[in-house]
Amino acid sequence: MLQVTEAAASILRQAVEAPEVPGSAVRIEPVQTPVGDPAISFQPVGGPTEGDTEGDAPGLDVFVAPELSDPLDEAVLDARETQEGAELFLRPQVQAG
Hints:
The protein has 2 helices and 7 strands, in the order E-H-E-E-E-E-H-E-E. It is of the alpha/beta class and about 100 residues long.
């Protein structure tokens, strides 16, 4: 299951709590960049789409599109500060033992 850190969840909560945003949850789905490279998108939603899996995020409902469920199953969505502001990134989960 995708794990979402408190730092990443805070950024996503701020986005969905904006008054003009329709929805109170986030759906992670595959997209393509303008040059055709694969990427992921974070979309505000009211609930899951059929086939979505839930991510583990503190204080926020996060749904993962079926196409990304397996690739993100052992990933962590985290955030870090950069010169341009906060940046979301994926990293592997640390396995105990």
